[in-house]
């Protein structure tokens, strides 16, 4: 041993008083039992982003439900061409559109349209996406092949383009429902894909194997173990899809294949204002701001909720 | 131009110079490292002192969270973003590294201090060829800059690291290398610039035991040849003592004991070290081996060590408890019969792969059979087929006389309650979104056992059995440690009062002390409930403590099957001998 010739080191023992032993693997569960939702709430509560976006969304919902609380001006009946593209006037804080209608009133009254389209599309996308994604990912094999190819077909068509086609065909029946359907039918594959990938990951977990070994039925395993652990990205993607559905409705209306001009919506207003962008930019910018702020708050909320629900993010804390 | 000068010395082994003997190469004085968290600074390393002389080797031993890796990372300033050195000195050859600038640190890394990371699988970039990555390291260390010279040195490095036909290997990608080969590459890269100090952070923990031994042998001879000083980090006390002259035992960020390895191992002074010595499977297995019987091994433990270990678990006592239980359970009919079991996977392109090749064994009721093998030996596939999580290609499995192949529907459902698994990964085996009560109660719900109140009572009973407080019922897995999660997994497995428990590497991911606790728990539960265990593991040392019979698997076949004593005392196959020799601590006189 070469070390014998070297500077040998002393055997050092730390005083036990300074390095007390702790019970091996003692349970350290104190305070209130933590529960997923309670934890998520505690986490969310600390973030200003959550409060800001939640406040805006709440405001938007109230506006959509009770527009009368925010403006006394009837949105359509008061239009006078003499006011065309005029600036703010008493009682009309944001000025007038080309048709001489009150911009503020139109934004307030258009909220419910935009929000309804957003909500209907989101529900549709979530239901279709979860059904297709969950079954394709969990059952695999031919179920996966059939469902995934079907999703690919819809995925290969840009949903705006598809909605344009559908809406031009259905122009006679254009309404909040048809436009939501036209967007929703083509928007779900993204959700389905994300969920499928997540389910493929989760279904190989040991806890799924343990449940199988217990004799829990396949469907129950999907519902109870796999889906809840895969749903977090879907929650994010649906909040974003709510935002993009609102945008899509605006786009379609802007392109002239959306809602008839008799239905007030932000998209319609933006569409009609485009020709006057240089002379009266406020007629386009003001409804666009309403649109952006709403969309942004939904996206922000989605991010916050994702962070709070993600078990991996939770473990790191 | 110093690069060129150093270049000349490369390749020729440096004669051991002893002129600087008086001054240690590395001296850590009162080192403190903290991590920033949301709630403030958390101290990870709290006043560590360490001295390492030229040409010596030193191992830092400790459980996860003891601060051993943090200490090593602090030396070369590789602490993660939130970590920072809050006090003390790290003197490398007299230079204080805690005060080194970023630029100075870069020239120290690689050139003066080499580093071998823990996981060979994730530490090589999969999109670049091995050659590219080795050459990059060589260039970064300024060993050579001209294309041809770099390549020549890269080939040399790989040859030194023990890779045959290195020039051909340069063009290959990491996925074409086995784990052992990748670790050789990483060791080669760490030593490429002929550093004075090599830090190896658990260099072989991710590798099979036989590979681990070869790699460590190679590392040892290589560093001796080059005169490199070796600092290595490990959780395995046996391994540390075998491979290093000096030992530093860390516990909760502090050094509790340090000094010459043999002295510490044979005469541990600090109660924590005593606990470790008592709980290390490699040492326990050696001790049983040396004395020829478990009882004698227990007596030889030494009074003070055994008593001072206090509440800690002595593995030899566990082994003895099991041996006694076995005597009582003798002459029982077999609980499991496996005959000619074969599993063939069809792989697209490359044809069939036989994962399990006509495996046969029997397990008597109330006994433990260990299925031992390295990764890819097919041991886990056998477990999955036994649990009917996978179908066999051919062969039979009889559980309590019933042929698994014919069991379907309601019968299979009933059979599942008699046979339960516990898996390896404590973090993956519990659903993170369900609370402990629901997790343990799920088997009862699924099989509709009893009423709501009686099920609740049974959950409490199970928590008692695995020695966890009843208050955990409403808690979620994220509040529990790995060992506690594994207890929950055991409680879930026991809920339906099964006869058979399949333990698939159930203790492999745990720290030694926790592992010892769980092994003790398993032995106690077996004695109490008459359980039959199929214990799947890669660790023969653990087998010595827990199993009655051993089947050694290699490449899908059982190469040797006998009682544990027979396998350990008189192994017939070369492969078994290799596995036994690979248990760390073979060369340590334990003073028994």
Task: Set down the secondary structure blueprint.
The complex is a heterodimer of chains A (317) and B (592).
Chain A: E1 12-13, H1 36-45, H2 48-65, H3 103-139, H4 141-156, H5 159-169, H6 176-202, H7 206-214, H8 218-230, H9 232-255, H10 266-273, H11 282-309, H12 311-316
Chain B: H1 2-9, E1 26-37, E2 40-52, E3 57-61, H2 68-75, E4 83-92, E5 95-96, H3 102-108, E6 113-116, H4 130-140, H5 147-160, H6 166-169, H7 179-191, E7 197-201, H8 209-226, E8 229-234, H9 237-243, E9 246-251, E10 254-260, H10 261-266, H11 271-279, H12 281-291, H13 294-300, H14 303-308, H15 315-328, E11 334-347, E12 351-364, E13 368-372, H16 379-386, E14 394-399, E15 402-403, H17 409-416, E16 419-422, H18 436-446, H19 452-465, H20 482-494, E17 500-504, H21 512-529, E18 532-537, H22 540-546, E19 549-554, E20 557-563, H23 564-569, H24 574-581
Parallel strand pairs in B: 3-8, 3-9, 6-7, 7-8, 13-18, 13-19, 16-17, 17-18
Antiparallel strand pairs in B: 1-2, 1-4, 4-5, 9-10, 11-12, 11-14, 14-15, 19-20
Give structural notes.
The complex is a heterodimer of chains A (317) and B (592). With 317 residues, chain A is an all-alpha fold. Chain A has one domain: MetI-like (MetI-like fold, Orthogonal Bundle), CATH 1.10.3720.10. Chain A contains 12 helices and 1 strand; from the N terminus they run βαααααααααααα. In chain A, helix 9 (232-255) packs across helix 10 (266-273). The radius of gyration of chain A is 28 Å and the shape is extended. In chain A, 40% of the residues are buried. Mean pLDDT of chain A is 83; it is low at 1-5. With 592 residues, chain B is of the alpha/beta class. Chain B is globular. In chain B, strands 6-7-8-3-9-10 form a 6-stranded mixed beta sheet, with helices on both faces. Chain B is 40% helix and 23% strand. Strand 1 of chain A pairs antiparallel with strand 10 of chain B. Chain A: Belongs to the binding-protein-dependent transport system permease family.
